[in-house]
From TrEMBL:
Pfam families registered for this protein in UniProt: OMPdecase
Function: Catalyzes the decarboxylation of orotidine 5'-monophosphate (OMP) to uridine 5'-monophosphate (UMP).
Organism from which the protein derives: Microvirga terricola
Protein name stated in the entry: Orotidine 5'-phosphate decarboxylase
SUPFAM superfamilies: Ribulose-phoshate binding barrel
CDD domains, per database record: OMP_decarboxylase_like
Enzyme class name: lyase
Lineage, top ranks: Bacteria, Pseudomonadati, Pseudomonadota, Alphaproteobacteria, Hyphomicrobiales
Length: 242
């Protein structure tokens, strides 16, 4: 069974919301984190902030007791991925993403050995739909079918969790079993704009579908009151029976 909000401590319920610091500078990110305060316990740092001093900021947040998801989507030759993952593990991050190609996933599992780092495999980006996959050179195949295939490969290789659209979380859960993480970006509270995401759902629906963690960026960091926006999503998570 997926996690049940009835049995999860308040801190852990907050941990299920990962706030995406999709911002251009550490100064802006630090200001947002300060405004959110203890309403936020888990933060995602991706390319935009990562290449602007975000890795050092990640260490700063970890030292303050926050959890960090480094959304780096590694994909390279096996040795490069393995050594990169080994370096990330030393930072103390909680999650790290790699693309769900078998060779890449095997290298990532080897690189994180002996650490607490959890590897998440990105199946199909939530900004992709079936048409985008065809344009990228894949034979005509529904995105959901490719997600399922990659989720099964990740399970067999020993990856800790899957990143997928919340619309596919239930089917992925059936494939990977009850113990693995399912992290869903593309979450939009009711009334929010979808932006460049094409496969989106609300926080409550994502949890009902079997997600363990929700990634929310713009609806929080661009909100007039980021703390209140984060609190509203945490409250919705807590109200849903997973």
């Amino acid at each position: 069974m997926p996690l049940s909000s009835e049995s999860i401590p308040a801190r852990d319920i907050r941990d299920r919301l990962i706030i995406g610091l999709d911002l251009p500078s550490v100064e802006e990110a630090r200001a947002v984190v300060k405004r959110i305060g203890d309403a936020g316990t888990f933060y995602k740092i991706g390319y935009q902030l990562g290449y602007a001093g975000g890795l050092s900021f990640a260490e700063e947040l970890i030292a303050e007791g926050k959890k960090i998801f480094l959304d780096l989507k590694l994909h390279d030759i096996g040795n490069t991925v393995e050594e990169g993952v080994r370096s990330v593990a030393r930072l103390g991050a909680t999650f790290l993403t790699v693309h769900a190609y078998p060779q890449t996933m095997r290298a990532a599992v080897a690189g994180k050995a002996g650490s607490k780092l959890k590897i998440l495999a990105v199946t199909v980006l939530t900004s992709y739909d079936d048409k985008d996959l065809v344009e990228a050179g894949y034979a005509p195949v529904p995105a959901a079918e490719l997600v399922a295939k990659r989720a099964a490969q990740a399970r067999d290789i020993g990856i800790d969790g899957i990143v997928c659209a919340a619309t596919e979380a239930a089917s992925v859960r059936a494939i990977v079993g009850p113990e693995r993480f399912i992290v869903t970006p593309g979450i939009r509270p009711a009334g929010s704009e979808a932006g460049d995401q094409k496969r989106v759902v609300t926080p409550g629906d994502a949890i009902r579908n079997g997600a363990t963690h929700l990634v929310v960026a713009r609806p929080i960091v661009k909100a007039a009151d980021p703390r209140a926006a984060a609190e509203a999503i945490v409250n919705e998570i807590a109200s849903v029976q997973s």
